[in-house]
Amino acid sequence: MSDVSMWARKGRIMKHGIGIIDAADRMESSSFPPLSPRMSYGQMRMALYNAVPDLHVSSALLPDDLDGIYCLDTDTILIDRRITWTRKRCTLIHELVHRKHGDDTSQGCNGCRMERRCRMETARMLVNPMEYATAEYAYGGNAWNIADDLNVTVDVIHDYRILLRDTARA
Fold this sequence. Notes:
The chain has one domain (41-168): 2-Layer Sandwich (Zincin-like), CATH 3.30.2010. Helix content is 48%, strand content 14%. The chain has seven helices and six strands; from the N terminus they run αβββαβββααααα. A four-stranded mixed beta sheet has the order 1-5-6-4. Strands 2-3 form a two-stranded antiparallel ribbon.
């Protein structure tokens, strides 16, 4: 039996892939742990151990194309151990956003409203607007180079661009 199967039997699983975010220096809200978008994955994990002792963050071999899952009943985040450190970092923030909103995605949520909200909020938290503008100019808009420079995934950059487009329309 896999790590995921053992864990899944303990509570409802919330499935989803990875998303994206942005914020200034601190990611804050009444229900969001004090993290900085400049922290590495390891630094974020250590900060969570201290700030949110009831939250369990572990790694496991997740099925299919899942990068992370959140279980509301056990307050547990699982991150796929095979993905890159940058992807783990983005996935951790993505799952924390689902946790913040109490999203019950145990029946899946790809393409649904709560997943879009989570992806946009993740991009808003992880991408600094000034750093993005500088990287956009420096790399001629190349999403891969921008993502590498900002230590986020290309998915996060795409979501951040959606935020910019939506903001420009408003």
